[in-house]
What we know:
By secondary structure, the protein is of the alpha/beta class. It has eleven helices and ten strands. The protein has one domain (2-253): TIM Barrel. The longest helix is centred in the C-terminal third of the chain and has 18 residues, at 189-206. The site of 2-phosphoglycolic acid has 13 residues, from strand 10.
Amino acid sequence: xxxxxxxxxxxxxxxxxxxxxxxxxxxxxxxxxxxxxxxxxxxxxxxxxxxxxxxxxxxxxxxxxxxxxxxxxxxxxxxxxxxxxxxxxxxxxxxxxxxxxxxxxxxxxxxxxxxxxxxxxxxxxxxxxxxxxxxxxxxxxxxxxxxxxxxxxxxxxxxxxxxxxxxxxxxxxxxxxxxxxxxxxxxxxxxxxxxxxxxxxxxxxxxxxxxxxxxxxxxxxxxxxxxxxxxxxxxxxxxxxxxxxxxxxxxxxx
Length: 254
Ligand code: PGA
């Protein structure tokens, strides 16, 4: 399905499969091999990005090398190189052929203490290494209940905007209400409509030279997708659990 952005650019919906730590190495490879033909067909009308664990990146890049299916990482280091045991640099990712990288996911903010500063450092390094960041923002249930969603998102976006406003790179922002991640609850239609109109306006004002692509993430599944595809300004989806089951993933895309 083709959608139009505010600047009149026409693009297919983007579907980012964030496999988190759900699939093992073997399961990840088998998913790609067994569903290769169908994924390739689906990718004629959809921009599909598979984000497996670090160790599965290279074999999956190899599997999809003759297709338009892209491969993304779920994280990268905020440092260029050096004594950071267990970390993977943006340089390594780009050399491995990684095209995208998720940044600022709530699970990293919460479990690994990622701050806005760390997130902006990662974004800068990714752009320097020609990897497209997929930048996640979102509010907690408490913040939503207290009606501070816009304040929280504006705060999260402030440092992100400062980090990228001097270039004209493509920007991908994924709005993921934290209370929707893995809960099977999605926000009401009017909340999402308001958020995506607001995000489009704010980003267009602050980043006039950048092309902007907005994603929604949080409990995207074959049922919720129907409602989500009716919301203007959503250019794609970040899909966790449901993307690890091929049948569900395909139903979301079709
Ligand atoms: P979920 O996760 O689809 O399992 O809710 C989304 C995400 O965390 O990106």
